[in-house]
Amino acid sequence: MPTKKTDSATPNNQKDSIEHERLLSLINSMGDGVIALDAKQKIIMYNGAALNILDLNSSITGKFLSSIMKMVDSNNQSIDIKTLIANARTPVFYRDYLLCYPDKSTVNLYMSIAPVHLGYGKTGSEGHTVLLRDITHEKSLEEERDEFISVVSHELRTPIAIAEGNISNAQLIVDKGEKKDEVKEALRQAHDQIVFLSDMINDLSTLSRAQRGKLVVEVESINVHELISDLEHNYAPDVKKKGLKLIIDLDPHLELLQSSRLYVREVLQNFITNAIKYTDKGSITIGAKARSNGIEFYVVDTGIGISKSDQHKVFDKFFRSEDFRTRQSNGTGLGLYVTMKLARLLHAEIDVHSELNKGSVFTIFIPNLK
Ligand code: ADP
User: Fold this and answer.
1) Is the distance from the beta carbon of residue 319 to the nearest atom of ligand 1 less than 6 Å?
2) φ/ψ (deg, to 5) at 26
3) Which of 45, 69, 292, 337 gives 20 to 30 Å between its CA and that of 8?
4) Which pLDDT tens digit goes with each residue over 60-99?
5) d(CA 126, CA 119)
6) Is the beta carbon of 332 within 6 A of some atom in ligand 1?
């Protein structure tokens, strides 16, 4: 067979060099940085990805790894790479160290160190292979997820504790067989907390669908007059309950809007419920005006307003102002975050103008999607 013939005709040193080339192209095709060290921890082989991660552009053969790589732990304590490698008698890996560059920037590093055991009876020194991967992105996702879980569990704990306390209080009062009003009040408070929990779960499920890209925009022709009058009808009782005035301000020349009725409605509902929640006197205005290729909606209130420093944070996940007046009402800090996600799906632009103690204006321009 031709292959056999070539093999047997190839001198040993040539075969070795072919093997070497194969090995080199194999490790060079890897996305992870690979560095082979001899027994003295000097570099004998490396690939392009290793140079990329270390941010170097000249040969590192013959150098000590510890002389070209600086690492710190999460407390900024420097890591002794020499000892790390010397102690690696079996494969080990690290995910919590940071690789430091001369300009003081850092990346999260995955580093695995494996000892190389030469085959039985072979002479020559042992060494190590080191694998390097930049895991900054994964780490930041992990941190975000951990923070999300901790905030959600914290946010859930308070209403559950209040609802549980009120229900057990109501049971006690019922057992004693009197004070109907107190039972009613305890149940009302428990009910409020359950409503809050259900709002939060709705926000979370919309959010999770938006984040997984599972929300589908079904474009329909929306009659804006009808939509606003529907919202007016829904929110008039809440506005009245707070002694506020509801003003509807519609451009008479509004054309049909081509967008998702469900999401446009959800965005406006978030603006309106916030306007009602954070306003104790004055009015709420819901308006819409025609703009080229779309419609601009606005919700204006004469409420507590938002400080300059808070204005850019209101769309952040779980953000709620520290203002004590905000804390007087229930809120998850998710409404505007979800709103922003929906706005992106609709290719819409959101704007907020607000002045403390005067009120806020939330505007959204929604373009026609067809
Ligand atoms: P929440 O459930 O707390 O209302 P949102 O995401 O809807 O969550 O809003 C985030 C924060 O933005 C609120 O907690 C509040 O501090 C501020 N905010 C939003 N809308 C208004 C408004 N109309 N007036 C004053 N503050 C507002």
Assistant:
1) yes
2) -65, -50
3) 45
4) 999 999 999 999 998 899 999 999 999 998 899 999 999 9
5) 10
6) yes
